[in-house]
Amino acid sequence: MTELEKLRHSCAHLLAAAVVSLWPEAKPTIGPPIENGFYYDFDLPHPISQDDLKRIEKKMREIVKNWVEFKREELSYPQAKKLFKNNPYKLELIEELKAEKAPITIYRSGNFVDLCRGPHVDEPNKKLKHFKLLSIAGAYWRGDEKKKMLSRIYGTCFPTEEELNNYLNQLEEAKKRDHKKLGPQLDLFFFSPLVGPGLPLWTPKGTILRNLLDNYVWQLRKERGYTKVTIPYLTKKRLYETSGHWQKFADELFKIKSREGHLFALKPMNCPHHTQIYAHKQRSYRELPQRYAETTQVYRDEQTGELGGLTRVRSITQDDSHVFCRYNQVKEEFLSIWRMVNIFYKTFGFKPKLRLSFHDPDHLENYLGTSEIWEKAENDIQEIAKNQKNSFIIAKGEAAFYGPKVDFIVTDSLGRQWQVATIQLDINMPERFNLSCINEKGEKERIVMIHAAIMGAIERFIGILIEHFAGAFPTWLAPEQVWVLPISEKQNKYAQEVHLKLKESGFRSTLVQEGSLSRRLRLFQKMKVPYAIILGEKEMINNSISLRDRQGKQLHQLNLDQLIKDLRNEVQSKSLKLELTE
């Protein structure tokens, strides 16, 4: 546990102490540190609201003054049961510790005692100063929807006041950029209660955005020898039993029973289907690599409480690809995908960092294959990363269950990190499906499989982009690129001519005539359209245009043909800004 995690874990204890002080009947459960703070789950005698957080915070500041240390004690099983006899949640944890033959430890701080493995900070009265409670949510005990719903209080804590304030300012800015708010405002997507949670509906504008991104990825793949394939959304149970997904993810599958009693599943991923396209005929080594690409939806039965806008959905669109190749072709194929990832993310101003997600050798039961297979695959991936002269971190236990992977991490305009693209080396699935090629000796040779997604889930990636750009997409990506605004009815005919010329030139132009000019300009800025062409008497007489950007900045007057040329250069280069010709 890092020092920051220790600090936040300690602050979670302080939160629990304050809640118990205010509501003695409250039953604390667990309170771990998380990426940007901590939380603690409580079984409370009555509901509390956001308004109670200030009261809890005040109590925390009172209590911490008397916390000079976290005192560790080890208890016997009977002692622990007696101490927590009125808390069924702690008793459940104690039973698990007993079964694991693990030590049962508590930490005392002031008058508060909690079941905990630690560790904690020294001198909490000096170090637990810069914290803030953020929100309240519901959470099932141990994440099991069949168990009781608890009250989860989220908070954050930092070593310094400056770091805390910076983070809180970031949160405020994030609220303004929240894709769950901006997406419907910009008329990109929405959720219908009749369709169901986690199943976004995409409007015409949102579909333009999706298609532009998908077409860009496909163009990069097409240049590198990929071909498109198409698979059904359903499969028999047997396919996922063979791949291993049924055993690992049966609870996350949407299952369908036919009238004849056959059990099918909505596909949660595409790779097992793609193995069957490869395997439908015997392949020669001369045909390899086989590179398949498909953008298609998959479905996963996520718990309702875990859904969140576009970042966690039940209907997931993957820009998926699978390469079937010989082992001596892995490096070249990996590097080809790597280059695509770098080109794609550079377009948005991102500089991806690397995380090598490897298996946990202490829990081999969570993965397919032997330790020897995993070690070879991971060593090869690490060698490729080193040869690329990229810095990377190794994340033990973060591999897919069938193979290690390279995850690409980007930092958005608010400094938040997101895992986006991924390349995965899979030796296990070709083994399970008996995938081979005929080599130079006329013998069957086992092949390997590379899984790769550039965007990953399109829904999630668009959510990231909305917040990164605050909805103000670069012109090439904007669903609407130009609004044409005549000042009065006198300019309507000229505005129609300008609008049609833009559309004929391939631009997404919208002619907006209804309402006052000031109202239309406010709406233009709200919808974050890159450019507005304003046409008055002078423009009509001079056969020119007046250009304004979405920040409200008045750009110089110019000829429409020259603007079309400049806009075309901006769109084709996928630039983040327009370079106007003087």
Explain how this protein is built.
The chain has 582 residues and is an alpha+beta fold. The protein is built from 19 helices and 28 strands. The strands form seven sheets. The protein has an eight-stranded mixed β-sheet. Strands 1, 2, 3, 7 and 8 form a five-stranded antiparallel β-sheet that branches. Helix 1 packs across helix 2 and helix 7 packs across helix 15.
**What characteristic shape results from the CA principal axes?**
globular
Structural category is: alpha+beta
Which residues sit in consecutive blocks of at least 5 with pLDDT less than 50? none
Q: What profile does the largest beta sheet have?
A: 8 strands, mixed
User: What is the average per-residue confidence, as pLDDT, rounded to a whole number?
Assistant: 91
Here the CATH topology of the largest domain equals BirA Bifunctional Protein, domain 2
Percent of residues in helices comes to 25-40%
